[in-house]
Specification:
- It is a single chain.
- By secondary structure, this protein is mainly alpha-helical.
- It has helices at residues 4-29, 34-56, 67-91, 96-102, 106-116, 127-148, 165-171, 175-202, 206-228, 240-268, 270-274, 278-291, 298-341, and strands at 153-155, 296-297.
Length: 347
């Protein structure tokens, strides 16, 4: 059950991520600016995390706060700020489904960066590592299929206003800009996940890291809004849609989804978390068909199946690596004891 907990947590986090994309798109459609939206959602998250962070991470068990840790918090906050601002900007030009599909490139970027920074090791002899590599490529391939191939409708929409995301993509004059922004957001997200993993190795208090992260974003977004927007109406919450979107983002965005992701990064590593992004479009399609009456297309079905195959390949490789690490860690104390037995202390 303990091993299944990170898996279940990330599944729930991906459902909330799909809702977060839809909520942000609705808020921005009302005329709300990116910076003010980021400011409000992260400010609410800070209020949620403030009591729980210092209640769970009490002073005796809290890691020491060093200059290195503070520098890591600042870097993480800047990356998180860029991820949110660029991502929300991209969502304004493409549909939520297409945005989710492009974000499925995050596992590929994360894998490359993890190898580059030494978070993941590429062992030519180890089968599990190659399965993880192939599974990552397969998942990215599935995301590409979902994005660029529609095919015939298997389940037709139950309402007349349903619009295929690919049709929306073709009609929008700014879809190239939106796609480029989402691609940049994917690279930034991969950097964010790797940075998060490196910081949590040195400072293990997850909630305090997330509190510092959100606090830095609040300051940066407020300053950016004052400098770039020049309009205090951007902070208006008169629209009910804006208020509901901010409440959802504050509680289920950084407050839940990102914090759960940070905990899973600490427990299972960055690639484990990144591999759940391709499932986002599968979840979005299922929720759309069940609750919104959307059409289900052949391309979505094929691509989703390919994503799931790649995802389970990576999860299998990850589980095998965890078993190898457990075996090696259980053997190391015995080897250490034996070496101590044969040690001669000279006068």
């Amino acid at each position: 059950m303990k091993g299944a907990l990170p898996f279940l947590a990330m599944m729930v986090a991906q459902v909330s991520q799909v809702g977060l994309t839809l909520a942000s798109k609705k808020a921005i459609e009302t005329g709300m600016q990116n910076f003010s939206y980021v400011f409000y959602s992260n400010a609410l998250t800070c209020l949620v995390l403030l009591p729980s962070a210092f209640l769970i991470h009490r002073s005796p068990n809290r890691p020491p706060l060093t200059f290195s840790a503070v520098g890591g918090f600042l870097l993480l906050g800047i990356l998180g700020f860029l991820v949110q601002v660029v991502g929300y900007a991209g969502v304004t030009y493409v549909s939520a489904t297409v945005a989710t599909a492009i974000l499925n490139l995050i596992p590929g970027f994360t894998f490359v960066l993890a190898i580059t920074f030494g978070v993941e090791r590429l062992n030519n002899v180890q089968l599990a590592m190659w399965v993880k590599l192939i599974g990552t490529v397969v998942s990215v391939l599935g995301a590409i299929i979902v994005t660029f191939y529609t095919g015939p409708a298997i389940i037709k929409a139950t309402h007349l206003t349903s619009v295929s995301p690919h049709r929306f993509l073709g009609q929008s004059s700014n879809w190239i800009l939106g796609s480029v922004l989402m691609l940049i957001d994917s690279v930034l997200s991969a950097l964010f996940i790797i940075t998060q993993a490196l910081i949590l190795k040195k400072y293990s208090a997850v909630l305090i890291v997330m509190l510092a992260y959100c606090s830095i974003i609040v300051v940066l977004s407020f300053l950016a809004s004052l400098i770039l927007e020049h309009d205090l109406n951007a902070f208006s919450l008169q629209s009910r849609t804006r208020l509901l979107a901010i409440l959802y983002s504050g509680f289920f965005g950084a407050g839940f989804q990102i914090t759960i992701g940070a905990w899973c990064v600490k427990m299972k590593g960055p690639l484990f978390v990144a591999m759940f992004h391709p499932l986002g479009i599968v979840i979005a399609a299922i929720l759309g068909v069940i609750f919104l009456g959307d059409s289900l297309y052949l391309g979505c079905l094929i691509g989703s199946s390919v994503i799931v195959i790649g995802f389970y390949g990576v999860m299998w490789g990850k589980s095998k690596e965890d078993k190898i690490v457990e075996v090696e860690s259980s053997k190391s104390p015995l080897l250490q004891d034996k070496s101590e037995e044969h040690t001669v202390v000279l006068p």
